[in-house]
Fold this sequence. Notes:
- The complex is a heterotrimer.
- Chain A is 81% helix and 0% strand.
- Chain A is an all-alpha fold.
- By secondary structure, chain B is mainly alpha-helical.
- Helix content of chain B is 83%, strand content 0%.
- The relative contact order of chain B is 0.15.
- In chain C, the strands form two sheets. Chain C has a six-stranded mixed β-sheet with strand order 5-6-7-3-8-9, sandwiched between helices.
- In chain C, helix 3 packs across helix 4 and helix 5 (130-142) runs parallel beside helix 6 (160-175).
- Chain C is globular, with a radius of gyration of 18 Å.
- Chains in contact: A-B, A-C, B-C.
- Chain A binds chain C through residues 69, 71, 135-138, 216-217, 219-220, 223-224, 226-227, and chain C through 13-17, 40, 57, 202.
Amino acid sequence: MRDKLAIGLAAAAAGLLANNLYQMFMVLPDEALQGAIYRILFFHAPAAMVGMIGYFVALTFSVLYLTSKNLIHDSLAASIVEVSLVFSVVNLVTGSIWARIIWGIWWTWDYRLTSALVCVLIFFGYLVMRRAIDEPTQRARLSSALCIFGCVDVVIVWKSIEWFRNQHPGPVLDFRTGGGKMDPAYAHVFWMNFVAILLMATALVLVRTRQEATSREIDSLRRLAHTAA
Amino acid sequence: MKTVKHALLIARKDLAVELRTKESLNAAGAFSIVILLLFSFAFDPDPEQVKEIGGGLLWLVFAFAGALVFNRSFARELPNDCLDTLLASPLSPASLLTGKALANFVMLLAMELVSIVIFGIFFNVNWTRHIGELSLVFALGTWGISMLGAVFGALTVNLRLRELMLPIIIYPLLIPLLIAAIELTKLLLANQPPSPSDFLWAKILIVFDVVFTALAMMLADTILVN
Amino acid sequence: MTRAIDLAGVWKFYGDYAALRDVTLTVEQGDCCALLGRNGAGKTTLLRILAGLSSFERGRTHLFGSSPRQAHAAFLGHGIGVYEDLSARENLLFFGRLAEVPDPDRTAAEWLERVGLANASDMLVRQFSRGMRQRLALARTFLHLPKILLLDEPFTSLDDRAITMLSELIVESRRRGATIVLSTHQLREAMVIASHVALIENGRLRHAGERTETMLDDPGLLYRLHS
């Protein structure tokens, strides 16, 4: 059932993505001031949004695990963090490429990029810690605690880095040239791509959750074998 | 009341052991001096540059040398299964965390005092001008490091590669606190009058300390009881 | 009267693996229950749950009506639970204060005398011999005259002097109405001091009841009956 859902979501994501790519490259014109590279926005910002949403959904499942003690919730939390981390890295890489094309530099300490980097580091630590714990219940318990600390910290990180950059101005990664809102034509493709990336992320989460469940089963059988021996 | 009493008992015990062995204090103190020395070669700053970067340098020293202190925090409970004995006693996990944080706090402050004296000597900086405000900034910043150090020391105590993992996990989480502490310290060392926006940093320090101390107390059982 | 130890339908999981399966066990006040079973059967897991060191996923556990975390039973595990860099006296003072004994200084002095460490009271534990450490561990466990004692293989690697001391302390504790649960592989010692016996195998409780004369004469009987 879960496999069918994952395949369905992946297929929907692929279809939507194909349509969006067509729109981006065949229908929409280049942006007036940035040129062709503007199109990277359609991946950069949705990846960031999906990543951020993912961390807080993982927080919900972590809290749920601590109350329910159901390991499915921990598997979901861990899978979501992994997938969110991937999309956060996509956000950083695409931001870097954009900065290189527009300003000739690979990196800028723009507050959003910097905060995103800190989030990546926090949740990379989460995954590193999980790998160091063999016993599933202990791993779930400690990961949940770390996820809660991490997500609370993310909020404080964003605000403090934003204030830091207000006091120490530098280049700002803002795709909206000429001020004001995004053109409606661009906005439509932007949000459609957000949906495509969200569907893709959900499909990946379902696949990873299944892998976590299988890994737990193997661990349990190993313990049983050791006890019988 | 009992929580406070037990926390003080734990802190006293840790400080008694540390005063006897001086393991963490010696290592942290020596490491902080080495970093300050290396910095003088790496950047060779003039007096104006020192005012600009002194705050950052000091807090990097405190954070890195501090790792040697809070790394030992729960590790010293491992021999002879003392951690199990403590958790089976009337001591609550929240008291244990608070006591460890208190002990870390005292040890880190001692290391920071040594560091700032050496820093003042090496780079010819008068840090006593605003000693009251500086002490407050140090206390607030150090409490955040101490509490998070205790929490993640407890989280990682039984894990493989604990010494490697603790810095990877804790430093990203400390970033807001370090930014705030660095900005305030820089201001005080440069003898600049604070602007309204600078009080934001003091607020961040206080919010960080309050939020993470509360979170630590709420999750103490989860972290310590298997 | 509230039971000293009351476990009902307790399950403990490590991931999907059930280390304890539907364990129901009661121990009345003043009894001494020997917990028997092979390595990996679940004895230590059960004791750790009773000591409040481990949580459990299903069932309920009460010690004199309170949860294990509130009951504060005295626990002696595989480690001796004393600090190497403190002296014997400092260790007992610390644990005495933690247990809120009325006069920690006097209690520490009395127990050091009792376990034969009065002359070494200001020596650091790291300078102690193995026998001295074991006796200090006993003092640390018993000094606050606990109502419930949980001992995980306490006779293992004890020297003769410490074994005698421990046996005396157990008898004395029972006389003042304390309840004891001890896990052990030393069947003979267990059958002599225990009033009740429980056998765990693969996480399940196979037998729980009074220690009979037959068990005293033939300590291995239970294992043979339930294997």
